[in-house]
Every structure is written in C-alpha cells, then in structure tokens.
User: Which sequence fits this backbone?
C-alpha cells in the first residue's frame, strides 16, 4: 500500500540527526527521500557499534526508507547535479546555515530559478534576522540556550544538566516535518513553492515557554515564570518500599482518592492549602512532599494495584532495558526485526501511528553510502558519459 506522501520527492542535504529524523518520517509516510551525502558521508554513520562500517545505530534509526547519492557540493559539477535533481523534486531540505547554502550557490533564489514549485526547507540554529544568526548550533547548545538545564536545576537537580536524549534535534525535527507537510498542502492550492525556515532556538524556546512563561503571560505580569507543578522538587518518580512508581494526581477526584487510600482524607478537607485546584497549584510542592512520604510506605506492586483500582493515573517506571520486554510495546508490534544486506539482523522501531488506509511502512533499509548514486543520476537525466565525468572529477562515488 502506498503511503500518504507517495509521489513526493525530497532532496535531503541534511546530516547528523535533526534533519535526517524529519526526513525519515517523511520517508516513512511514503516520500521518495534522496539523501545527498558528501564523499565523507553523514557523520552519524560512524557513531557507535558498526561505526567503523559507516552504519552506526543512530544513523540506522534516522535514515530508513531513503536512497543515498554521493555528491561533493563544493565542486561546480556537484552543485549542478543538485540543481538537476531539484528540477523535478518537491522539497529540498538542508541543515547548514543559510549563509553557507548561499556560498555554495544553493540559496533559495538559485533553486527557485530551476523549480518555482520547490519547497525550500531549512533547519538551522537561529533565525536569520537575529544577532545569533551566524552561531553554530547543536542539540546540547540549544538545550542550554532554551533554558532546559536551568529548569532542571530549578526543579531540584543539584546541578544543571542536559536531558539525556537529543530532545532539541528530535523536537525540531518533528516540527519541521509538520511544516514541510503544511507547505506542500499550501502548494497544492496555490501552485507556488516557498522557503520555510525552522530555527532550532526559536522552536525550542516556544516548546519550553509554552509551559513556563506562566505569570509573565499577562501584561503586567501576574506572577513569576515557571509552572509550579512542573518545577516541584518532588515531581519525579516516587520511591516506594522496593522501587519507584510514576503517579499523576491532578483532579479533585484523584487527590481525594489518594488521600483516602493513605488514610489522610481529613487533611485534605481541613487544610486550606489543598481544598481546590487553585490552592493546590500554589502549594504543589508541599502536596508532592506528602505523596512522596506516603509512597514509601508500600511496595511498587501494592501501589500499582491500589491506584489502578482507584482509577488514578499510574505507571511503572521503566529502565531503558525494561522497554525491550515491555508487553504493550511488543503486543502492538513496536519493535520490528529486519535483515540489512551488510549489517545482518537488526532491531528497529516501527512507525508508531496507525492508518486505516495509506499506512506508512518500512520499505527499505537505511542505505549504504552512495548505494543508489547511479540510479538517482540516471533519473535526473545523466547518461553513462555524464556519470563517468562526475566520477572522474571526484564529485561522486557509487559506494564509499
């Protein structure tokens, strides 16, 4: 079954994680994503196990369903080849700074001249109209700039730290995927392509401040920044007598049921700090401290049973290793095993959405460097002589 983006062709100049993650989702949805790599290949190919074979795990998990072509964009023939690929493409994606794209002769005006219907989508660090426009950007830097380590320290960490996943790359990648789909929809109505900028800093600042602008939302301000519930030091998996459990107490019914189970319902009625949602929000730290004390009195299994029976939101705290054996993930087909032509058996992650029609699917392994170079060039109109000229000039290689 063809995916929802079947027939869309994307020329993907992105590397590392943010851009490839966005374009993998588009590829999962059926788009033909042509991954353009330098002769050195995407740097993430060499991170982790099998990195010496240019097929590391982070690369594998961000590049399935794509085709790879090797082109040296610093060479005039490489630039021309990209322009040729874009003549019949729908989207070009890049994640180097716009200034660098302009120096390569691959700015928006250059691409629009060969294909006015092209969506020209850039994912880079900072909006081009601000003073940080020329700054380099990576996940850790953007996490810090957008306030995540500081928020974690404010919420109780001894020191500021980054979230232990590439949260900026993946969040901005998700946003970029949506922006590209929206631009394609607009083009279907207008017939015109356009440039779309997706800056990491502004995207992550919006992500963080949607929760934490809080009192500064109002002019004049009606309180400090920081959503109190998210900042409470005891908002964490609660320690039980033998482990940890995750609980969310939010509504009046949740709090009353919990205090009843703990034998402290009278406290909820008598203490004015806890009587209603507004009061609880202002004193959430004290409430969570009470919950933390009570949770230590019973085992994890006891709490899972008691809270589950009371219809209070509760979940086991999984380790990374626990996820591999999680019964729900396995029952829904979340993990998939595939055979890679050079790397052997692989465990992959299925597309998490479910569709009644046009279902996304795993169609192709993450490509070897330049695996489809010759086929892609022929689709762009290159004959044997043209491909040979690129190869002799060192612009392309069939495989690294």
Assistant:
């Amino acid at each position: 079954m063809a995916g929802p983006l079947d027939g869309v062709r994307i020329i993907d100049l992105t590397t590392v994680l943010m851009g490839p993650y966005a374009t993998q989702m588009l590829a999962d949805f059926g788009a033909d994503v042509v991954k353009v790599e330098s002769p050195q290949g995407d740097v993430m190919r060499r991170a982790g196990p099998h990195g010496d074979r240019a097929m590391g795990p982070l690369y594998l998990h961000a590049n399935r369903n794509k085709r790879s072509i090797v082109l040296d964009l610093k060479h005039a023939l490489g630039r021309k080849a990209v322009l040729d690929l874009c003549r019949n493409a729908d989207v070009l994606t890049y994640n180097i700074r716009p200034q660098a794209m302009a120096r390569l002769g691959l700015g928006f005006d250059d691409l629009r001249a060969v294909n006015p219907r092209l969506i020209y989508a850039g994912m880079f660090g900072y909006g081009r109209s601000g003073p940080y426009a020329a700054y380099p950007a990576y996940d850790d830097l953007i996490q810090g700039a957008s306030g995540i380590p500081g928020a974690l320290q404010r919420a109780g960490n001894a020191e500021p730290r980054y979230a232990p996943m590439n949260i900026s790359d993946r969040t901005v990648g998700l946003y970029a995927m949506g922006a590209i789909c929206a631009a394609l929809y607009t083009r279907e109505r207008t017939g015109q392509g356009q440039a779309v900028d997706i800056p990491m800093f502004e995207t992550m600042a919006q992500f963080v401040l949607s929760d934490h602008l809080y009192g500064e939302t109002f002019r004049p301000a009606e309180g400090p920044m920081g959503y109190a519930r998210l900042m409470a030091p005891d908002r964490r998996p609660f320690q039980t007598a033998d482990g940890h459990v995750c609980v969310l107490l939010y509504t009046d019914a949740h709090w009353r049921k919990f205090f009843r189970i703990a034998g402290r319902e009278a406290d909820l009625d008598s203490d004015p700090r806890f009587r209603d949602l507004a009061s609880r929000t202002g004193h959430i730290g004290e409430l969570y401290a009470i919950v933390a004390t009570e949770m230590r009195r019973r085992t994890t299994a006891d709490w899972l049973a008691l809270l589950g029976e009371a219809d209070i939101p509760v979940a086991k705290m999984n380790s990374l290793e626990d996820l591999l054996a999680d019964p729900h993930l396995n029952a829904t087909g979340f993990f998939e095993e595939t055979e890679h032509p050079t790397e052997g058996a692989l465990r992959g992650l299925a597309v998490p959405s479910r569709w009644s029609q046009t279902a996304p699917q795993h169609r192709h392994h993450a490509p070897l460097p330049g695996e489809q170079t010759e086929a892609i060039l022929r689709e762009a109109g290159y004959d044997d002589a043209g491909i040979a000229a690129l190869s002799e000039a060192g612009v392309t290689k069939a495989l690294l």
